[in-house]
Amino acid sequence: MRRFALIASAALLAFASTAQARDTPVHQSLQELLNSQTAKDAGIDGSVRFYLAGQKVNVLQRMGEDVTNKKTNAANKSDEEACRWVALSALKALQDGAKSRGANAVVDIVSYYKKNEFKSTTDYECYAGAILAGVALKGTYAKVK
């Protein structure tokens, strides 16, 4: 009986570590997220504009670079839902950073999960797991026209 308990415990530990190890990349539209009611409800107020790397923007002044790295509970949420929620948290941090520096935009935004850059003119990258979802964004605070 003791041997069975040991085998069962080992199997549960192996399953738990496998379940927690999932780190699935999810790509979603930044503009769609910014235009959503959820973004407004989360405090993304439109006072700071967000431009992904490669998007056309007339930069008047660059005001320093910053990186956000946010995580959220992904349990009982779809990957897409968890990723939207954590991306809003990352964008809110960039918005607050821009306001504190007198910037009206964050430009050249790239996803920067585990210091690996993902560049897209339309999408941000999130990594979703069984327990957590994470978004890291790197961008430059700026004054734009």
What features would you describe in this structure?
This protein has 145 residues and is of the alpha+beta class. The protein contains 4 helices and 6 strands, in the order αβααββαβββ. The protein has helices spanning 2-21, 30-34, 37-41, 79-101, and strands at 24-29, 49-52, 59-73, 105-111, 123-128, 132-144. Strands 1, 2, 3, 4, 5 and 6 form a 6-stranded mixed beta sheet that branches. Strand 5 (123-128) and strand 6 form a beta hairpin. It is globular.
Write the layout of secondary structure elements.
Blueprint: H1 2-21, E1 24-29, H2 30-34, H3 37-41, E2 49-52, E3 59-73, H4 79-101, E4 105-111, E5 123-128, E6 132-144
Parallel strand pairs: 2-4
Antiparallel strand pairs: 1-5, 3-6, 4-6, 5-6
Annotation, overall tally of beta strands: 6
- Mean pLDDT score, rounded? 90
Strand content: 35-45%
Which assembly state applies to the chains in this document? single chain
Rg (CA only): 19 Å
Quick description:
The chain has four helices and six strands, in the order αβααββαβββ.
Any descriptors?
145 residues; alpha+beta; 6-stranded mixed β-sheet; 35% strand
